[in-house]
Amino acid sequence: HPAPLSFCVLSGDAQQSISAYQEGGMQQWQLQPLKKVAEWKHPTCIMGLAYNAQGIWVACEDGKIYRNQADKPQEVLTHGTRLKGIQGISGGKTLSFGGRQARLWSSQGELLQEFNSPSPILSCRYSAESRRIVLGCSDGTLRLINAETGEVCLPW
């Protein structure tokens, strides 16, 4: 890479890795034997990566989410606010967050659900059993949200 790495993720089968640097460049690597598979350049800073069977999801500073797949054209989704990060979830879903909202996307890139917060979200994670989302917010609170209903279960 021409710059220090900011993010890296491993495929579910641990056969490939994606590495990225904040200035917008990223590379996909086959690990055994080591070989570069693909390379992309994004127009703005990369704020996070997620990898699942539906592709490589890239959260960029400009509020856009790019889905990269080695043999397909790049797909662009709009989160709407400056993104802080993204998480790949089982079943091909993806969770993006930034500003005062987190968004859950289907494996086809359709917006499934939006979760709002009274203060900016700095960190966000989906639970392993896919029923809860926790938001870490700039006002010092954590908000536990029911992923099916969007209801806040527990602010603390």
Describe the structure.
The protein is an all-beta fold and 156 residues long. 0% of the residues lie in helices and 57% in strands. The chain contains no helices and 16 strands. It has strands at residues 7-10, 16-20, 25-30, 35-41, 46-52, 55-60, 64-69, 72-78, 85-88, 94-98, 101-105, 111-116, 121-126, 132-137, 142-146, 152-155. The protein has a four-stranded antiparallel sheet, with no helix packed on it. 33% of the residues are buried. The model has no long low-confidence stretch (mean pLDDT 86).
Describe what is shown at a glance:
The chain is mainly β and 156 residues long. Helices cover 0% and strands 57% of the residues.
Structural key phrases:
about 0% helix; about 160 residues; 4-stranded antiparallel beta sheet; about 55% strand; mainly beta
Could you give the topology of this structure?
Blueprint: E1 7-10, E2 16-20, E3 25-30, E4 35-41, E5 46-52, E6 55-60, E7 64-69, E8 72-78, E9 85-88, E10 94-98, E11 101-105, E12 111-116, E13 121-126, E14 132-137, E15 142-146, E16 152-155
Antiparallel strand pairs: 1-2, 2-3, 3-4, 5-6, 6-7, 7-8, 9-10, 10-11, 11-12, 13-14, 14-15, 15-16
